[in-house]
Each structure stands twice: as C-alpha cells, then as structure tokens.
Design a protein that fits this description.
about 140 residues; alpha/beta; Immunoglobulin-like; 4-stranded mixed beta sheet; 3-stranded mixed beta sheet; 7 strands; about 30% helix
C-alpha cells in the first residue's frame, strides 16, 4: 500500500471517529433540550415520574439506550410540539403504538425476554434513524 493510500485511510478512520464524537455531542444536546421541554410540560424532572421515562424529541429517543428489570413499565413521552411519534418493538413482533402527539405518552410493560431489544419510531426510523435500545435484565 502506498504512503498516499495509508494517509487517506488514516484520515478516513480519524474522520469517522470525529463524526461519532460529533453525533454523540449532538445527541447529548438534543436530550438536554428534551429534558428541559419535559420539565416545562410536566413541572418536574422526568426522574420524578415514578417510572423510567424515554422522551421523544427532534427524531431522537432520550436516552437512546436504557437498562431495566424485566416487568418494569417504561413511559415513552413525546415532548415535541409539532411532530407525532410512536414506539414499535418491530423485531420482537409487537404492534406499533398509536401515534403520540405533543405531550402524549404510552406506557409499555417490559415483558420481553431478557437481553437487548431495539425499538423504533414508526414514522421516523427509516428516514431519520429514530431507533432506541432497551436492555432487559432478569
């Protein structure tokens, strides 16, 4: 491999690392905004909801990954003002939730087998990449 090819390959790898770092920073920023919006709507932090909360905001699930014990109910809350979202454990063969408009929520009991499960926003997973992950432990 030529020095030029090695240099190009190194730049591509470094660029990918920077892109991942940028994506993570953007995700943190969006999730901070989602939490602010949640507090505006409900008058308290999501941590005080009495159950795990996943917010849906700007085509992002916050947090993007969550770990819970089997049987726990997770609340999915749309804090966007003008966009509907849904929750869909498609690979697990579950039905998609109804569309949730701003300030609406759906509670989902985690009765799936232990392990990692991907969930999607029905209208936004393909175009916007709105995908989350939940790990269910026994």
């Amino acid at each position: 491999m030529s020095r030029f090819a090695i240099s190009v390959l190194c730049l591509m790898i470094a660029g990918g690392a920077f892109a991942q770092a940028d994506k993570a920073a953007l995700h943190r920023e969006i999730c901070a905004e989602a939490e602010t919006r949640y507090r505006e709507v409900f008058g308290k932090p999501s941590a005080e909801a009495g159950m795990p909360v996943v917010t849906m905001y700007k085509h992002t699930f916050c947090p993007i990954a969550l770990e819970v014990k089997a049987g726990v109910t997770v609340r999915f809350v749309n804090v966007d003002k003008r966009t509907s979202h849904s929750v869909w454990f498609k690979a697990a063969g579950r039905e998609e939730s109804t569309r949730l408009f701003g300030e609406e929520h759906v509670d989902v009991k985690m009765d799936l087998p232990a392990g990692e499960h991907e969930y999607l926003c029905g209208p936004h997973w393909q175009q916007e990449g709105m995908i989350g992950k939940i790990t269910i432990r026994p």
